[in-house]
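Quick question about two entries, pasted in order.
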Amino acid sequence: MKPTRALLLFAAAALAARPLPAADPAAPDPAARLAELRRLADSVHYQTGVVNLGGSLARLTLPEGYRYLNPADTATVLERLWHNPRQKETLGMITPPGFHPLRLDSWSVLLTYAEDGYVKDDDASKIDYNDLLVKMKEGTRQANEARQKAGYPPMELVGWAAPPRYDGAAHKLYWAKEIRFGNEPQNTLNYNIRILGRRGVLVLNAISGMSQLRKVEAATPKLLSMVDFQEGSRYADFRQGTDKVATYGLAALVAGGLAAKAGLLKGIWVAILAMKKLVLVAVLALAACLKKIWHWIRGTVPDAQAAGRRPPGSPAS
């Protein structure tokens, strides 16, 4: 065996995470796994037009090219395709033009709802977001020990990818964080939109990498305009003295994990969703290459047509 093949054989064995059998084995078939993932990706049903979220809670009006996945199909994408932890409850997912769950350059927006009460926005003009960022970075570092014990890589909050902005007339807050996980080659983009309502907050989180920042930023005006509470659940519908008031304000919404005492640990999980999605698609691409390497090691030809040969017994063209 030539040294080059020996190295490739070692690499293939390591990537397969198991030793090579002594006997002539059937080649591992990552292509079959990829075909199954493609089948799952093709099984989800996309909706267009106007979609009611959470019954009569909110309404989603999709512009041309944008589509919606209901909570069940969203779970298929997040958990079965992207191998993320099970999500408790979602309102579904928004996908932009050209989206496909197995494309590395795809991004999407996860919809959830936090019924924590009416969030007062009277601190909007008083928040020092630079000071808040310093505290968030420290809180992220302190949380890494628990993250690693839970089996997740350490996380570093690099900084704002887009600083927080609040539209006081529409009661919509949006910002973006750049996050680094372990030794991942691409940082994760954690792009957040929060829409304040009478009894809680609509949470929109982009699942993407930093390379999609410009695309997500360009789409933000459409995202802000396509989702809103329905009448009776809007911010203006709040009834003083009878409706519940949240125990936190706008700063805690931005801080995410820093506001653990207020029950806000959502941002950290969305960042994990983005990371796992990118890693999974990259592994699938590697798996496809691995199968070709395996056939090359064994001296077989996996694709007769690509090799310019017909398989034995096939008819001439």
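Here is the second entry:
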Amino acid sequence: MHRFDTALIHAGEPHPRIEGAITMPVFQSATFEPRGASNYFDLPYIRLNNTPNHRVLHARLAALEGAEDALVLASGMAAIATTLLTVLAPGDHLLVQESLYGGTHDLTCGELRALGIESTTIDAAAPATWAAKLTPKTKAIYVETISNPLMHVPDLAAVVEFARAKKILSLIDNTFATPLVFPAVRFGFDLSLHSCTKYLNGHSDLVAGAVVGSAELVKRVRHRAAHLGGALDPHACFLLERGLKTLGVRMRHQMASAARIARFLAESPAITRVHHPALADHPQHALAKRDLQGFGAMLSFEVRGDVARADDFLRRLAIPANAPSLGGVESLVTRPATTSHSGMSAADRRAAGVSDNLVRLSVGIEDPDDLIEDLEQALRIGQ
């Protein structure tokens, strides 16, 4: 088995190479000759996510997480929604981490409940409290490796142990960590979910998602996806495969920069609180240090003052773009209350700890000294 950075380049590539091409060609064809397909789901067809471009990605993503199989889909939410609709049915119950990505919160508290699937939130760092929230209908527990936007870190070992003991599925959104920081399936999670839009691609030029896990579970998700239609286009597959190759060098640089920036912001009188697992005062710093191979490149912080002060800070930044999403080579900054968590009610945001003046920063690969100088000048105005 190759080491991580070698697998990023070579896992899943065809042997022999197609016409000798070093780079995997784009198979921009909707359908193919069956050539021995034994059932409908084996027919090579874009909607079934099984063209040559899809298959290379599936093998590579599975190798990175230590899994049997993987499936790429049209977006991170396609991966999350399709997975939950595969493993849950009307009448079932789900345990979900507090302070989730806003889209996942809306899905579990809105659409799934409308279908008769209930959910209960848990403090993912307090395993002693979970059993009391189980019901006879509980089928799965769902957490984020590093939560969006407050960078909470669950007791990941306890999640795996709890799920096995209670005979429920363990699901994790591994987007913020990536397999570099946390190979979730190798660690023991049943399914690892990704928004490949973010770090796995790393260039802010496509939308994609992935589901990684056992062959049996991924097969079930694949069959459901064929009917829900969340297919990933072959050219997007090509871009994602290309982006994956540089994940290691990108992410290591971004994580080192994010830790420096977090320490700088923690000492700024213009900031009231910084959320980043590398900081010793982060509530789950010890858990992150124990289970993760790095602290991620995302951080969030609360600007001292009101919302107008936070918006003024954002306007004065010169390097980070004020835009949603994350994980690209360029730094991006946003106020989650107006973007990723805008679908939540103000009361739900407050309950989740997402204040209106909370700013989320996705650290890119720019020089960290330039980023710190830019942050410093934007915070200095009006002080």
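Reply: The longest strand covers residues 138-144. The domain at 247-380 is CATH 3.90.1150.10 (Aspartate Aminotransferase, domain 1). Hope that helps.
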